[in-house]
Amino acid sequence: MFEETPHIRQKLRVETTAKSLFLLMTVFIIIPLVLIVTYMIYKASPVLSLDFLLSKPIRGMRDGGIWPAFLGTLYLVLMSLCIAAPVGVMAAIYLNEYAKDNWLTRTVNLAVINLAGVPSIVHALFGLGAFVIFAGIGRSILAAALTLAVMTLPVIITSTKESLAAVPMSFREACWNVGATRWQTIRGIVLPNSVSGMLTGFILEVSRAAGETAPIMFTGAVFYKAIQEGDLFAYGLLDQCMALSMHLFTISTQVPDVPEALPYATAVVLLSTVLAVNALSIGLRVYIRSRKKW
Amino acid sequence: MSEEQEYSIETKDLCLYYGDFQALNNVTVNISNGKITGLIGPSGCGKTTLLRCFNRVNERYGNVTTTGEIRILSKNIYDNDVSLINLRKSVGMVFQRPNPLPISVYENVVFGLRIHSKRKELKKAQLDDAVEKALREVYLWDDLKDQLQTKGTHLQLEQQQKLCIARLLPLKPEIILMDEPCSALDTEATQAVEELMYSLTGKYTIVIVTHNMAQARRVSDECIFMLLGELVEHTRTEDMFLNPKHKKTEDYIEGRYG
Asked: Do the Cβ atoms of B115 and A184 come within 8 Å?
């Protein structure tokens, strides 16, 4: 009874192979990540310091720090988030909670998803045409942030819609059946229980906006701009600015004889900024989620 | 509750379509005031759909067309001057799966008051009273008076379902619709909820959808049997179970199909 037949042994061998293969692939994606990050930090270590972060580039960007670029990226990312988040969340609420399920809604939903796949260079040209030239804002932080916002809107809308849809229908039914309007239902029950999911969308938007070069290159980012070191309010809305991604591109490809450590250090700062913002949102998400249970 | 009215719900030639699918076919029914009316029939016969017509919440579920007439307390609820908000305030619903809101017990009970009043109008004492009164009415007060800040979703299922009933009471509803309120509960909890229903008769008109013949027989004063979107038989419960008039009713309550 119950003994192993060759057929069963064969199946078990396949099982082991399959499992090892999947494990191997998982390791494969972790190794490059670890290698890249360690290598970057190793290469950047000679110049990496607080001083590097807080001072401006000197000697034609061959020395000094990255403060103007760092601050520029912060401005761009935060402003684009401030523009895209409210618009995106409200649109998502409409699409998920109010819109009837008809062909128009389905088309809009499909369009939003497709919009997320539009290459950033296309958004860059759109931003240049619409904000810089047509709206007459000119090349500026505002125009660049608007462009980034347009680019990241689909991501925010999609993730917000998903987090709204994750709130059980029975909660809505409960509210409707005591005579709550849709908005009272959304305000009282749906939103408080979907905030954590929305934050995911914001995380994605931040990561993407911080890393993009093309959209800001056309609409507001410049090679070099001198600002007061360490001053958080050094840029005005209509100023042009430096940005980390752009700076990285510049010193890696456009300026000769840049010491090797500089681009690596810039990359480390860019990565850490994104990670820091992500960590903040993830922390917030975990906190909110720990308080919600049903 | 107005005593002079014999019926609190009257429908006439009520038809309902989900898109092209006809879910209700010429349902004409009068539901007695202050009694418990059971709604029985096999799955998909339109019981829940009919129930949801009574506070027009069907319309929130997308592509629904209704024809015919529904009168609640003699008022045609398709009249232009009917506010859905006030209609649903008077005609509350309890669901199959207890669905307390993910907020505290206290907030669950006063949820209706809060959404129907201006913020300034609500005094703390008044809310406290409403909570105590509603929870006493559903026999939860003694169990829960010390844990009003617990989340409604953390209670036991039986307590959750009672809380869902309690949630309707501060709004002084006329009619309570119950869609298989016990099917997620165990026998003891079912008994407790049924007892609660008895105690509510007279004060409220209760319409209960149930799959459980024995339950329909135990709790209801009158019974409605539906099949494929049509009303087959509507009589006093004893009559239906002892002398069903229609062959189909008889076969169903004897369990020959379902």
From this structure: yes
